[in-house]
Amino acid sequence: MSSSLVPPAAPVWPFEVYDVHIHVSPVWYQPVESVLPEMERAGVHHGVLCQLHGQFDNEYQFAVAERFPGKFASIVHVDPDAPDAAEQLHAAAARGASGARIRPQMRSPGKDPLAIWRAAAAAGLSITSFGGSLAAFLTDDFARIVQTFPDTPIVLEHQAGYYLETNGVATLDEVKAAFALARFPNTYVMIGGLAEFTPRLTPVTRPLPFARPLPPILELAYDAFGPQRMMWGSDFPPVSVREGYLNSLRWTVDALASKSTDDLAWIFGRTGRHVFPIRP
User: Fold this and answer.
1) What is the rounded CA–CA span in Å between residue 228 and residue 183?
2) In this structure, how many other beta carbons lie within 10 angstroms of the beta carbon of residue 68?
3) What is the tens place of the pLDDT at every residue in 83-115?
4) How far apart are CA 193 and CA 132, in angstroms?
5) Which of 77, 105, 204, 240 could lock 209 by a disulfide, CB 3.0 to 4.6 Å apart?
6) For the chain, how are helix, strand and coil distributed in percent, rounded to 5?
7) How far is CA 237 from CA 52, 96, 249, 254, in A?
């Protein structure tokens, strides 16, 4: 058999890799069986199931966590308009969920617009937030929310909204302004693969298929948050139509190769496990 047809061995990382952003669903995207071989091929042993926006039925994620005990944590998503939203979050935490997904703009009806945020915090859930753009994180209103829940980890997904798929190319000043939320010690930033924030060249080049110079997003995140408040997430399965699962991991590790092994261990494993632990 040609050597080019032999799949490469899974990389052996000098640290645990903990993928904090995996979407699985029998309704949209793909079931969990599709990500398992990707994780194995990339040397990723554990991960976090992150519920889709608009999908308020979290039963599939609970079932997956039960089928693979000790492998997955779970981030749930609850309809803020539901009269029992708070009870749903507390019940999810009791069943082992470690996080809740709440958009920066998400508010509850009634007298307390922050009821959904308050319920997640009271249930002991970390909060992960995707605004769709940097602008969603740049409001005074969002900064006040972060300050209101100082004991609750709040994760700014996808480079705090610097995500080409929804945001286009933002200015570095806007990125720095969003990363300035690092002044609040309960904020964290989720980084993805380089293709999340770097345009692909056409024709594709090797070894990296991206426009040069690479935007300094990872360095800016590192300088603002430090390794103990950074975490890597693959964004599976959308990553599969960008650079691919393994490339998302290895090229991001390579881009941070100047950092110490201990720093990389935090960014690619320990931080995520601390914020979104796998619970029985």
Assistant:
1) 14
2) 13
3) 999 999 999 999 999 999 999 999 999 999 999
4) 17
5) 204
6) 45, 15, 45
7) 11, 24, 14, 22
- The C-alpha atoms of residue 88 and residue 77 are separated, in whole angstroms, by 10
88 touches 78 (CB < 8 A): yes
List CB contacts of 210: < 8 A, sequence separation 6 or more: 194, 195, 198, 199, 200, 201
User: pLDDT tens digit string along 229-274?
Assistant: 999 999 999 999 999 999 999 999 999 999 999 999 999 999 999 9
Encode burial over 150-183: b for 16+ CB neighbours within 10 A, e otherwise: eebbbbbbbbbbbbbeebeebeeebbebbbebbe
Output the CATH code of domain 17-275.
3.20.20.140
Query: In 3D, which of 256, 270, 275 has the Cα closest to residue 186?
Result: 275
Break the chain into its structural domains and give their ranges.
Answer: 17-275
